[in-house]
Write a structure and sequence with these properties.
Layout (H helix, E strand, L loop, with lengths): L1 H8 L20 H11 L13 H6 L3 E3 L2 H10 L7 E3 L16 H26 L1
Parallel strand pairs: 1-2
Length: about 130
C-alpha cells in the first residue's frame, strides 16, 4: 500500500516495493487493494511481491520501512543502507503495523498510518528528486 500511495503522490519519482519476507510474485492482499481503491482511488492490482536485494538497496536513494525490526534487518544485511534507511513513521515516531491476515479494519488502520507517514515524507522526497 505504501508504494502505491507514494507513487500516486510523487508520480515523477521512481518508487518500488520489496519485502524482507515477501511471498515472491504474490499479488497485493485483496483487502489492501480494496482499501486503496476505495479510500484513495489507487489501483495496485499489478503489484507483485518481491524480496529486497542488495541491488535494490544500492539503487535506492532512500529506503522506507514499516517497522524498526525491518530497519535493523536491512542494515544488518546491507550496511551501506544505514544512512538511507528510515521508518515511514520516522517523523511521527511510530511504526506501521502489518495487517497481513487481518481484518478490513486492520487494513484501514494500516492505510491511515501509511498516509500519515507518507504525508511527512512527500515534501522531503520531492526535494531530493529535484
Amino acid at each position: 500500500m505504501a508504494a502505491g500511495i507514494l507513487q500516486a503522490r510523487l508520480p515523477h519519482v521512481d518508487v518500488s516495493s520489496a519485502g524482507t519476507g515477501a511471498m515472491v510474485d504474490s499479488p497485493a492482499d485483496p483487502l489492501a487493494r480494496q482499501v486503496l481503491a476505495t479510500a484513495a482511488r489507487i489501483d495496485i492490482d499489478a503489484h507483485r511481491a518481491r524480496q529486497i536485494t542488495a541491488e535494490l538497496v544500492l539503487k535506492a536513494e532512500i529506503v522506507l520501512v514499516m517497522e524498526t525490526l525491518h530497519k535493523r534487518w536491512i542494515i544488518s544485511r546491507f550496511p551501506a543502507a544505514a544512512g538511507r534507511t528510515f521508518l515511514l513513521g520516522e517523523f511521527g515516531g511510530f511504526e506501521v503495523a502489518d495487517p497481513y491476515l487481518g481484518t478490513e479494519q486492520d487494513f484501514i488502520a494500516c492505510y491511515a498510518s501509511i498516509v500519515r507517514g507518507v504525508d511527512a515524507w512527500v515534501e522531503k522526497i520531492a526535494r531530493l528528486a529535484s
